[in-house]
Design a protein that fits this description.
This protein is mostly helical. It has one domain: CDP-alcohol phosphotransferase transmembrane (TM) domain (Four Helix Bundle (Hemerythrin (Met), subunit A)). It has helices spanning about 15-35, 40-60, 65-90, 95-120, 130-150, 155-165, 175-195, and strands spanning about 125, 170-175. A two-stranded antiparallel sheet has the order 1-2. It is globular and about 50 Å long. The termini are far apart.
């Protein structure tokens, strides 16, 4: 079978989990584009980010880290954390010039952050905020505008802040306190979305 489909040699548990994350991202797009259901879309995005956490953790624990897996992970991260925000903002805020500028800036920063991670990142430290962290900030801003009538400019500010943090010099230890706080913030946000 692998002779017919050579890519199958890369099937392992971490890559399967990354692929499940992609499917959650596709489901999020469905809920955004077809249903215009922010709540279900955000739940799918949260589950995709959870898969992103587990795939890297399991790759280390199972000693199944591969260059292929790193590329797949980055491609899925770009889709979920850089492309889906475009759909998210255009669905719930609209297409304004400021949307175009801020989303363009955010997506470019995300792209460069992921590429930089693949060529320069050390094993024990993140340089710049990882893209799921930036996506969390943007998701919370969109939720605040939709459910708490916050002004829409908060989304644009969060896109610029998230973009700058992704390409910044800030050094964050992997599995450090900052990551636990971000996941706690994400969990609280997840509960808020579920309870809405």
């Amino acid at each position: 079978m692998k002779k017919l489909f050579p890519v199958l040699e890369y099937i392992n548990i971490p890559n399967a989990i990354t692929t499940i994350g992609l499917l959650f991202g596709i489901a999020a797009c469905y809920f955004l584009i077809v249903e215009a259901d922010l709540r279900l879309a955000l739940l799918c995005i949260f589950l995709a980010m959870l898969m992103d956490l587990f795939d890297g953790f399991l790759a280390e624990k199972l000693s199944q880290q591969t260059e292929f897996g790193q590329y797949v992970d980055s491609l899925v991260d770009f889709f979920i954390c850089c492309i889906i925000p475009i759909i998210l903002v255009y669905t719930f805020v609209g297409s304004y010039f400021l949307s175009l500028v801020s989303l363009g800036f955010y997506s470019i920063c995300g792209l460069w952050r992921l590429a930089y991670y693949n060529v320069r990142e050390s094993d024990n430290i993140f340089i710049g905020l990882p893209v799921p962290g930036a996506m969390l900030l943007v998701s919370m801003a969109v939720w605040s505008v939709q459910f708490y009538n916050a002004p829409s400019w908060i989304i644009y500010v969060m896109l610029f802040i998230g973009g700058l943090l992704m390409i910044s010099f800030v050094k964050l230890p992997k599995y450090g306190l900052w990551q636990k706080l971000f996941w706690l913030l994400g969990l609280v946000f997840f509960v808020v979305v579920v309870m809405a």
